[in-house]
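Annotators were shown the component list below and the corresponding predicted structure, then asked to write short factual statements about the assembly.
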Amino acid sequence: MPEYKNWFEVKKVKDYLYCIRENLEKVDPRYYTHYTNIFLLIGSEKALLIDTGSGVEPLKPVIESIIDKQELIVVNTHGHFDHIGCNSEFDKVFIHKIEASFISNPVNVSNLKDSPEEIAKNYESKNYIIEPPNSVIPIDEEHTFDLGDFEIKVIHTPGHSPGSISLLTSRGDLFPGDLAHYGSLFLPHKKRFGTVLESLSKLIDLLNKGDAKEVYPAHGRFPVGKDLLEEEYKGIKNIEKLWDQKQKDRFLRSWIIKDENFKYIISRF
Ligand SMILES: [Zn+2]
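Structure shown to annotators:
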């Protein structure tokens, strides 16, 4: 049995939607993140893969075992290592224009050298480098992918990172990447919280209008609804009041603050 079967967990969510899940905590628990959700949308003509995981195990064989004849499009929601790890297995990867040059170069993950998890040693043979794909295609707000029987629209939702995007299908499935999910939320420096709040409002509007119906975050449980976005919005607004409780995390170079719904990992820089 190929090794990936032991590593990736494949779940058919809907006729046209699969989740390929990996446990990031088993790559390095210092990120306080259990599941990373890699989503695969299957249209009548094309399939679209949202993110490529941590790179600790090959992803392409898993994708090839699911898709049939469709041409595959690969998109990164943003350039962090846990979303771009298997990019080099694919010829072409789409990403927001702000993060295109970052993923066009080798990405150093030598901070994973001290991971207590055995599987992190899989990076050793790659010298703790995530290699880029052959080509990176920059995209922006309103870019649309046509999969045949439905479409996917790009929404620029900066905050978690400057080029973070969300993806919305014409069937109402919303993929916010790392902008919104339960569990440990990685936030920018608090002076940039306004950007996160604006992006959350943008997505709340889509749910209010009915353009989006279900939310499929890149980490944690799914599907979730508008509650997640509203709780996160309120939670971030309330962080200032909890500021005295902050604890320093040296590995993540962040402050950590918790409330009843989230663990906020706030960049110190
Ligand atoms: Zn992530």
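Statements collected:
1. The radius of gyration is 18 Å.
2. Residues 74 and 197 are 27 Å apart (CA to CA).
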